[in-house]
């Protein structure tokens, strides 16, 4: 009986090998036809590679080989016309079918399979409605506004804006390097009634995309003569279009930058008075001044938002802010380490240290304390303490703010960045959930 089972098994193995050989021959024929047409359909693939007879690994190998040969996998032959026109649906279907084919139950090895776990997690994400998309978009915008609000309180931001303005005037940089050109142009043309006539007039007087020298040469019959430059016409027109937008927007943007610089001079003065009143714990900064301060700050934020700064510029400002904050945190850590070595209670030390990072009288006041370790702290490494305090004072002078105020600005920027990042993550997950739901429809056809 055992011998018979063994013979049956050998017979089945032999049949499988024969079937596989026939599949390989059919694959070669299919590839030959696909090369001529430039595509192959899923029905043709299923005929030569039946899922019940051929392993998923072999199917993946064939698909990879087809992709390397430049052969597209489509739903049906009539869909090829749509694909040639740039229709996205067949491409989405192909990607979805391939993704779910690789994630089919046959390839799952257990409950901890990463693909299965990912699909289960994505299945818990709700599909977005129109209202949901709007809500997430508003959260992204709110997070960005929070970041901009924090950046607008930093003198470093306005130092950078002043530098960009000077570089624009001297033509060391292009306007497109500072702002999102198309977004700003669309806003100026569509929303701002005061600047729209100015921008439109600038567009009308901007250099044309074609000149006399650019006109094509004609042969004896009056037909244009083809040249090697014909392929670059669209790129040149696009570049000229950007140049025209820059020429139209540059006066308006420079005027906005001037207004920002002027308003910040006023804001900086009020900021100094506000910080001084806070440190002295008096009421010298009145409620009326606070209202004026908040109004002026809102106006500056609105002007900066209206510019639609290029993302690279915003990231550069944030990186600069975070870089200085990292150095300040390193100084904090070194001071706390010295306090730990002197066996000062850490909480007590932080309470005495925070808020007085730039106070010139701090060392004298700490020398008078009778608590445990303070005398050792002052006597053990006075040179190191003085060096760290000097570095902190230098950082404060560079940023133009008191250290506690700078910490608050950094926290605000971090909060806005986190809110925007979280909302973007939710948007991406919802879009992936939509792709998977579409993919399942195609696999069930």
Would you summarize the structure shown here?
The protein has 445 residues and is mainly alpha-helical.
Word description of this protein:
The model is unreliable at 9-23, 78-89, 105-109, 195-204 and 206-214 (pLDDT under 50). 73% of the residues lie in helices and 1% in strands. By secondary structure, it is mainly α. It has a domain at 35-120. Helix 11 (233-280) runs antiparallel to helix 12. Strands 1-2 form a two-stranded parallel sheet. The radius of gyration is 34 Å and the shape is extended. It has 18 helices and two strands. Residues 113-144 form the RNA polymerase sigma-70 region 1.2 domain. Residues 23-84 form the RNA polymerase sigma factor 70 region 1.1 domain. Residues 214-236 have a biased composition (Acidic residues). Residues 1-15 have a biased composition (Basic and acidic residues). This is RNA polymerase sigma factor RpoD.
Offer a few descriptive terms.
mainly alpha; two-stranded parallel ribbon; 73% helix
Unreliable segments (pLDDT under 50, ≥5 consecutive)? 9-23, 78-89, 105-109, 195-204, 206-214
**Discrete helix count:** 18
As a whole number of angstroms, the C-alpha radius of gyration is 34 Å
Choose one word for the global shape: extended
Q: In total, how many beta strands? A: 2
Helix content: over 70%
Report on the biggest sheet: 2 strands, parallel
Rounded mean pLDDT score:
74
Structural class of the secondary structure composition? mainly alpha
Strand content: under 5%
How is the largest sheet built, in terms of strand order? 1-2
N- and C-termini, Cα separation: 45 Å
Element order, helices and strands?
HEHHEHHHHHHHHHHHHHHH
InterPro entries: RNA_pol_sigma70_r1_2, RNA_pol_sigma_70_non-ess, RNA_pol_sigma_70_r1_1, RNA_pol_sigma_70_r1_1_sf, RNA_pol_sigma_r2, Sigma-70_RNA_pol_init_factors
Organism: hydrothermal vent metagenome
Protein name: RNA polymerase sigma factor RpoD
GO molecular function, one term: sigma factor activity
């Amino acid at each position: 009986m055992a011998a018979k089972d063994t013979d049956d098994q050998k017979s089945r193995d032999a049949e499988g090998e024969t079937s596989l050989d026939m599949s390989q021959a059919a694959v070669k024929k299919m590839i030959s036809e696909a090369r001529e047409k430039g595509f192959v359909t899923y029905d043709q693939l299923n005929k030569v590679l039946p899922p019940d007879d051929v392993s998923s690994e072999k199917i993946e190998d064939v698909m990879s080989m087809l992709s390397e040969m430049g052969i597209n996998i489509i739903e049906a032959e009539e869909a090829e016309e749509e694909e040639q026109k740039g229709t996205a649906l067949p491409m989405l279907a192909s990607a979805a079918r391939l993704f779910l084919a690789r994630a089919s139950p046959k390839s799952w090895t257990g409950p901890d399979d990463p693909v299965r776990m990912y699909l289960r997690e994505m299945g818990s994400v709700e599909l977005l409605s129109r209202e949901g998309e709007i809500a997430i978009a508003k959260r992204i915008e709110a997070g960005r506004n929070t970041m901009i609000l924090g950046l607008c309180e930093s003198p470093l931001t306005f130092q950078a804006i002043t530098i960009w303005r000077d570089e624009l005037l001297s033509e060391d940089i292009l306007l497109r390097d500072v702002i999102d050109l198309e977004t700003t142009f669309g806003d100026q043309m569509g929303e701002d009634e005061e600047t729209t006539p100015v921008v439109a007039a600038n567009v009308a007087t901007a250099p044309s995309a074609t000149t006399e020298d650019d006109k094509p040469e004609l042969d004896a019959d009056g037909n244009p003569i083809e040249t090697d430059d014909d392929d670059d016409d669209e790129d040149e027109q696009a570049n000229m279009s950007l140049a025209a937008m820059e020429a139209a927007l540059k006066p308006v943007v420079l005027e906005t930058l001037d207004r920002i610089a002027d308003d910040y001079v006023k804001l900086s003065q009020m900021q100094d008075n506000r910080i001084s009143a806070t440190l002295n714990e008096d009421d010298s900064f009145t409620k009326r001044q606070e209202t004026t301060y908040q109004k002026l700050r809102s106006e500056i934020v609105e002007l900066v938002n209206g510019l639609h700064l290029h993302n690279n510029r915003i990231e550069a400002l944030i990186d600069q802010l975070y870089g200085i904050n990292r150095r300040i945190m390193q100084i904090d850590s070194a001071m706390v380490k010295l306090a730990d070595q002197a066996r000062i209670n850490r909480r007590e030390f932080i309470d005495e240290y925070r808020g007085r990072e730039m106070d010139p009288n701090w060392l004298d006041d700490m020398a008078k304390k009778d608590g445990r370790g303070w005398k050792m702290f002052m006597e053990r490494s006075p040179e190191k303490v003085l060096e760290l305090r000097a570095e902190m004072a230098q950082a404060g002078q560079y940023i133009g703010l008191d250290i506690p105020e700078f910490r608050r600005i950094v926290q605000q920027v971090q909060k806005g960045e986190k809110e925007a990042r979280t909302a973007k993550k939710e948007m991406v997950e919802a879009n992936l959930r939509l792709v998977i739901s579409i993919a399942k429809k195609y696999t069930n056809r």
